[in-house]
Amino acid sequence: MTTVLDTLAGAATTEAPAPAAPSRRRRDLWTALAVTLPVLIVQAWNITGYPTVSDDEGTYLAQAWSVQHWHGLAPYTYWYDHPPLGWIQIAMLSWLPALFSSPAHLFTAEMRVVMIPVTAACCLLLFVLARRLGLARWAAGLGVLLFGLSPLSVGLQRELFLDNFAVLWMLAALVLAASPRRHLWHHISSGLAAGAAVLSKETMLVALPALVLLLWQRSDRTTRKFSLVGFGSAFALTVAQYPLYALLKNELLPGTGHVSLWGGIAFQLGRAGSGSLLTSGTGSNQTLNSWLYYDHVLIVAGLAAAVAMVASRQLRAVACAVLLFTAVAVRPDAGYLPAMYIIQVLPFLALCIAATAQVLVRTGLHAFPRVGLRPVRWAAVGAVAVLAAGYVVPHWYEGDRTAVTADANAQYDRAVQWIRADIPDPARTRIVVDDAMWLDLVHDGFKPGTGVIWFYKVDLDPAVAHGFPKGWRSLDYIVSTPTLRQDPNSLPTVEQALTHSTVIASFGSGTNLIQIRKIDKSS
């Protein structure tokens, strides 16, 4: 079975392909650019309007601002919830949105412009990886289009999520591991890139066995041990910077009066589980259904293709990455499953589908071996391709159409503009908001940290609560948003501030309602 699949995929030998000739590299370059361009157009179009800004985006953006302006990892106490490399990269790219900024849009939404070069790099790396794994040029291009144009991708890859940066670095690590030249420095660089992926989002550790498998396959037998040691050393030394930072801060282990890396890890591993992925009604199952709502084709077809591609030596590492992420998601004692988890699987799903399509096309062509039947062969392949496109394109069209036309952040834009125009003396005002509009108010003159406050810090950060001796009466305004209203019972000061306040401005309706509320300190 393995031999058949590898032969059909154009990779019958187990040796790495020879370095590409200049003419082949030029054709690859133009093809990669041709398939990346439509992805970038769709991703960039209306990027500030859809999807609705999330609390996570605001958090990472505020932390990136802190790196730039306060030379710290967070505007509040950094408690090791995630490694910081992801938002450090956001800080490094923060100059880009200034070229397109508009006062009519929420700053958090405008900062999404930094994701365009990230997506571009991911598409180009995915194309190179596909070619190095033996996929034909058209199949590699198909993989990029599947990865970038899926409605699921368009929504999630636009957002300022750490997972998108982790995907970029992991794709770079895979490309280096699959280098046809097999240079030791390529394998060491692969370890460095893998370390950067994990420091961007720690859950990318799940894909590490697949990367090691690819490195094992592509390294020369005589120098394999040097490649593995070089890779492992580079990876370990890169990731070790994180605990070393905590150690130097005396925050590696729990202790009185300070946060710790161990405490952050314990929190992440001990978070209340969202239930089984396959049990109806659980949080994980609802997350799965939301993924399938946006695109069931990429998920279902990609998972089936991954199972098939395990039999192909050339694609086994990519298929294993899909299966490893799937196994973690469906494990019996599943913990918390975030909505952005699927981001890390998207490139591998797309590659598996593209590889399977190549196998099916070559199988179809080999079914009519005679030269005289060549038109029949291509007509059959073309008919299957049209049928597949006829099924997929209408589903994707509606999702992508929403992404390029919806204005999901209109209520946020209007709320920030109202605060800017109607709340006097921002430097002396204390206002509680969700993370998404925090940076806008900082730019408008509210004092960061104690003037404009992340809502959950009011109750959960002792350093912040210490500055409010009168509790909710120390606050002036609170902005009620969908995020802030999710679980007020766990935040008593926030709940009391909502109870003892009156609406002075309202934007949107239903679950998207945003209310600016003035706190009545005399009640």
Automatic annotation (TrEMBL):
Keywords: Cell membrane, Glycosyltransferase, Membrane, Transferase, Transmembrane, Transmembrane helix. The keyword Cell membrane applies. The chain crosses the membrane at residues 29-47, 84-101, 113-130, 136-154, 161-179, 191-216, 228-248, 291-310, 315-332, 338-357, 378-397. It is a multi-pass membrane protein. It is found in: Cell membrane. The keyword Electron transport does not apply. Its main location: membrane. It comes from the Bacteria. This is Glycosyltransferase. The lineage of its organism: Bacteria, Bacillati, Actinomycetota, Actinomycetes, Kitasatosporales.
